[in-house]
Amino acid sequence: MSEQSIIPVERLQQSILFMRKEKVILDSDLAELYGVETKALTRAVKRNLERFPEDFMFQLSKEEFEHLRHHFGTSSQWGGRRYPPYAFTEQGVAMLSSVLRSTRAVQVNIEIMRTFVQLRKESTVNKSLSRRLSKLEQKYDKQFVVVFDALRNLIEPPVTDKQPIGFVHPKKREKG
Is residue 109 classed as helix, strand or coil in its secondary structure? Predict the structure, then answer.
């Protein structure tokens, strides 16, 4: 990748949220990345709804939207919205390039796709390392427990007390 990125990878990674068991990017974040207004992006999508089935794009429920607003605090970005935002999966973002035909949209889509792929690779590598570490741990005796614990702490992401993003059904909250 010798080309200069037009958007920092960190900015793209911050835009990716986990909702309804999917990695998604909200319409407002995509609009900002593409350099268009959110209403222009949603208008283009609505003109081409047949290209965006539910597994490509969905609109947040009112509960999910409220939870999102509370999670990030009051934001002028969302303050004037009259409807919950749309969330685009990786496939939905790819489909956007056929709806938004600007040069910037194509470049941004390429970078977003690369970021999704990078995140998937990182996830796969961590899972693979954890499996191999477990196999090694079973082979060797108790004297290596400290070493294995230290390695496992390096591989696994830190546990946080942050609330998950998205709507959590009240029955699931009571269980967990």
Answer: helix
d(CA 48, CA 53): 10
Q: From residue 108, give the alpha-carbon distance in Å to each of 5, 77, 81, 113, 165.
A: 9, 21, 24, 9, 24
Q: Are 150 and 48 in contact (CB under 8 A)?
A: no
pLDDT in tens, 73-86: 645 454 567 789 99
Which tens digit of pLDDT belongs to each residue from 144-175? 666 667 777 777 766 666 666 676 666 665 55
Put simply, whether the predicted model's pTM sits higher than 0.70 gets the answer: no
Task: Find out whether 17 and 165 touch, Cβ atoms under 8 Å.
Answer: yes
- Structural domains in the chain? 9-123 (3.10.260)
